[in-house]
């Protein structure tokens, strides 16, 4: 991909920018995209009045992944984030054309990702392999506590897209003003597709565009009910009490942090709320059930669990949502 990934200039010197680190990714395309982003963020760092080095917290050790485990003290957070599932009927949990069957364990090789169920394995299929894939990550400006933004994030999960998210929490000093500069309105979500040159507001229009451009043209029923979709997307936020909406002063990283996550997961929700509150740009690798990325991840790490982050600014790679939240706050909160 010869074309450079478009990144808006970050013009506010009050936030300390960090020098670029080395991105670690198995995918050649992801490494190239991340390096292009970093190059443009480095230009911003050069114009800032202050600069700080990136390092993980003193004595930091990434936790061991614990599948389906809830860290002590986090039960209420997970329960609140899980309220979205019944309100949205699981939209954002499964990719386009998801199908499932239970097969004998010997029908799926041990090096292939699959859930185990009573001595058998769960075979998952989807239509994602038949859909066009964007060469460069789509860019979306949004924030967690917005029902219209949630709708678009659900469609991102359904279509298994990689998205460069620019968080726009209330009072955020960096990306909210940039949306006004680019589109003329402080309205969210706002999408820019560097692959086609299309930029647009309005969640329903964004959803239809993504479905037509990177899907099979269909919109899931729970995203096509008009006002009812918006109401249930709003109700899905009740359990989080406005988290992921307001800005917490933070230092701007030199490179976007990479995160493997999907909208339907309550564990991923908790981690992404912190990304938004700290206004940390992040490259999301969507990986809902049926995503081919799950197999890629399994092949590389020997397991699959989300959320998972790789921070090219510090070299940290880690699982566990509650620990990710603590790491992000310790590393980037001002």
Question: Could you walk me through the main structural features you see in this protein, from its secondary elements to its overall organization?
Answer:
This is GST N-terminal domain-containing protein. The protein is of the alpha+beta class and about 325 residues long. Helix content is about 35%, strand content about 15%. It has one domain. The longest helix is centred in the N-terminal third of the chain and has 20 residues, at about 30-45. It starts with about 25 loop residues before the first helix and ends with a helix.
Tell me the strand percentage band.
Answer: 15-25%
> Could you give a short account of the major beta sheet?
8 strands, mixed
In percent, how helical is the residue content?
Answer: 25-40%
Mean pLDDT: 87
Shape: globular
How are the strands of the largest sheet arranged? 7-6-4-5-9-8-10-11
Helix-and-strand structural type: alpha+beta
Query: Total strand count, please?
Result: 11
Question: Could you state the order of secondary-structure elements as H and E?
Answer: HHHEEEEHEHEEHHEHEHEEH
Distance, first to last CA: 36 Å
Gyration radius, to the nearest Å?
A: 19 Å
- Count the helices. How many? 10
Instruction: Note poorly predicted spans.
Output: 1-30, 32-36, 38-52
């Amino acid at each position: 991909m010869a074309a450079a990934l478009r990144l808006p200039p970050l013009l506010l010197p009050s936030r300390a920018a960090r020098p670029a680190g080395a991105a670690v990714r198995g995918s050649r395309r992801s490494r190239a995209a991340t390096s292009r982003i970093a190059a443009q963020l480095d230009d911003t760092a050069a114009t800032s009045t202050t600069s700080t080095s990136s390092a993980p917290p003193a004595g930091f050790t990434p936790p061991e992944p614990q599948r389906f485990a809830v860290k002590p003290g986090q039960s209420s957070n997970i329960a609140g984030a899980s309220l979205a599932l019944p309100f949205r009927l699981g939209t954002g949990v499964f990719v386009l054309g998801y199908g499932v069957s239970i097969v004998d364990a010997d029908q799926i090789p041990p090096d292939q990702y699959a859930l185990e169920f009573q001595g058998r394995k769960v075979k998952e299929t989807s239509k994602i392999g038949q859909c066009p894939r964007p060469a460069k990550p789509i860019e979306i400006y949004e924030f967690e506590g917005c029902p219209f933004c949630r709708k678009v994030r659900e469609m991102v999960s359904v279509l298994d897209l990689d998205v460069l998210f620019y968080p726009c929490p209330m009072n955020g000093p960096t990306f909210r003003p940039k949306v006004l500069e680019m589109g003329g309105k402080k309205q969210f979500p706002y999408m820019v597709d560097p692959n086609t040159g299309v930029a647009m507001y309005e969640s329903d229009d964004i959803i239809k565009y993504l479905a037509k451009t990177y899907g099979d043209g269909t919109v899931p029923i729970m995203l096509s009910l008009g006002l009812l979709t918006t109401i249930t997307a709003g109700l899905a936020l009740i359990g989080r009490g406005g988290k992921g909406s307001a800005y917490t002063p933070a230092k701007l990283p030199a490179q976007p942090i990479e995160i493997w996550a999907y909208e339907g997961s309550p564990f991923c929700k908790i981690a992404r709320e912190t990304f938004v509150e700290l206004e940390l740009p992040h490259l999301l690798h969507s990986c809902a059930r049926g995503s081919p990325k799950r197999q890629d991840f399994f092949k590389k790490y020997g397991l699959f669990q989300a959320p998972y982050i790789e921070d090219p600014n510090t070299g940290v790679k880690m699982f566990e949502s509650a620990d990710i939240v603590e790491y992000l706050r310790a590393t980037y909160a001002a």
